[in-house]
Amino acid sequence: MADILHTLSNEMAAVVEQAAASIVRVEGRRRLAATGVIHTADGIIVTSNHVVERDENVRVGLADGSVVPAALVGRDPSTDIAVLRVNANGLTPANWDVNNQSKVGHLVLALGRPDSSVQATLGVISALGEGWRTPMGGYIDAYVQTDVTMYPGFSGGPLLNVGGYFVGLNSSALARGVSLTIPAETIARVAGTLLQHGHVKHGYLGVSAQPVRLPGNVAQSVGQETGLLLVAVEEGSPADKAGLAMGDTIVSLDGSAVRMMDDLMGLLTGDRVGKSVPVKIVRGGQIQESHVTIGERN
Amino acid sequence: MGLLQQLNDELSGVISSVQQSVVQIRDGRQSGGAGTIWHSDGLILTNAHVVRRDPVQIALGDGRVLTAQLIARDGERDLAALAVEANGLPVIAPGDSRQLHAGQWVMAVGHPWGVTNAVTGGVVIGVGKKMPELNVFTQDWVVADLHLRPGNSGGPMIDVDGRLIGVNTLMTGPGVGVAVAVDSVKDFLKKALNATPIRVETGKSAGAFV
Asked: Which residues of B touch A120 (CB under 8 A)?
C-alpha cells in the first residue's frame, strides 16, 4: 500500500501539468532557449532579463505549441526582470502567490520550458527573509532561497508551491551558487513600471564612496557611527552641481540616515529623480547641509 | 501516525521491494557498476560502459557471486545484457516510460562510490529524445533531479510502484541524473535477443558516466 506516496507523486505531476498553460519558452539568446511566465491574458510575459540577450527577433513558444514573435516592452537589469508582449488573447495568466504563503521547509517545484514540454525539479524553501537590494541596486521585496536544481533553460521560469501558486521567478543571475526567487510582489511592481515607462528609473548622484567611521563628537550629534566618504565626484554630476566634493562624508539624504552603501542605493529610487532633496555632510569636522537634485542613472 | 512517517514507510517499502533485484557488477575496476535483473532465469541489464570485458563477476543481493556472460552490448545505446546460471531471481516489473510526467517522484538504486544499494530520489525533470546537454538523440531518456555517482550506472530507476522506468546511465550536473528510458531498453532487448552473435559497437558518450 503506497497511498501517500502515490498521491504525492500524482499531485506534484498535476501541479506541473496545471501550471504548464502559463509557462512559455523564450527564444532570446543564441544558446539554449529559456523560460517565461504569462502575466496577463492579453499577451504580457515576464521573464529574466539576462535570458533576453537581444532586443529584437525575440520569439515565444506557447503551451499550445505555437511560436509567436514577441516585442520587448522593457527590461530592468537591477532586478533581472524583462517584460515581453505577444500578439495573443485568451492566454492563461499565472496564479501568483500574492499572499506569501511560503514557509521554510515547504516543498516547491521549479518549472521550465526550454523545449516543447514543461520540465520540473523539486526542492524545499531553504530561507525566507526581508527585502534586499541586488548588487545593481534593484529592490527585491523578499528574500526567497530554495535548493531546487536550476536545470538548463529554467531561468525566467517560475517557482511553484504545492497549491499551484506561482511564488515568483527563478533567477540564476542575481547571486552565485544559490537558487533565488524574485517574489510575485516584485514582479508585479517592476512589470507595472516597465509597462508604463518602458524602463525602471534609478536615481544618480555621480559619486564613488566608501563607508567610514565618524569622529566621536560628530557621531554623537548625528546619532550614527558611520557615513559615506566620497572618494570621487564626477564632474558635472548632480553631486558636483550641489557642491559635494571628494573628502566629504554623507551622513543623510532626504532626511534618512546614510551609514552604508546600501542605504544610499536604497534612497536613490526612481521617484526621487529630478527632485531637490536635502543632503547632510561632514566637511572638516563640521556638519553641513545643502540640497542636491537627484539625476537619473542611464 | 503522521503523514510524513507514513510517507517514509511507503518509501522504504518500495525500496525494499526492488533492492534484491539490484546486482553489483565487478569487472576488476574500482567502482564497478550496478545491474538490474530483468528476467528470473538470469538475464541482467546494465550499461555498456560498465561491462568492458567478458566474462564479469556478478554479486547478487543474496550474497552469491556468479560469473556472467555477455549476451549483447550496444555502445551507442549504452546498454548491455548479461546472463548468469540461476533461476528464480527477483525481477523488477518494467513500467512504461511514455507515461511518465514531469514532477512525478522517482528513485534510483545503485552502488555510488561502492556503497551498496544506496538510494537517491527526486522528480522527473523531463522525458524524451532531445534533452539539454545530451547529444544522443536516437533513444528516449528519463532526466530526474536526483544524484547519480560512479557505481550507480546500470542500476534501476523506479517509479512509486517500484516499476522499472529506466537504467541509470549518466549525470549532466551535480543534481541531474539521466537514465535510458525503459522503452528504449525493451527495443534493445528485442533486437539483442533475436540477433546473436554479440553486437559490439563503439559508443559516443553523452556526458559524465556514473
From this structure: 102-103, 123-126
Non-local CB neighbours of A70 within 8 Å, separated by 6+ positions: A26, A28, A45, A58, A59, A60, A84, A85, A86
Q: For the whole prediction, is pTM greater than 0.80?
A: yes
Q: What is the CATH number of domain A203-296?
A: 2.30.42.10
Taking the CB of residue B201, how many other CB atoms lie within 10 A of it?
11
Domain A1-200 fold: Thrombin, subunit H (2.40.10)
Comparing alpha-carbon positions, the chain A residue that sits nearest to B9 is A2
User: B97-182: what CATH class?
Assistant: mainly beta
What are the two backbone dihedrals, phi and then psi, of residue B70, each rounded to the nearest 5 degrees? -80, 120
ipTM: 0.81
Give mean pLDDT in consecutive 10-residue pieces for chain A, a chain of 298 residues: 85 96 96 95 97 95 96 94 96 94 93 95 93 86 93 95 96 80 96 92 93 93 95 95 95 94 87 94 94 92
Domain ranges for chain A, please list them.
1-200, 203-296
User: Is residue B12 less than 8 Å (CB to CB) from chain A?
Assistant: no
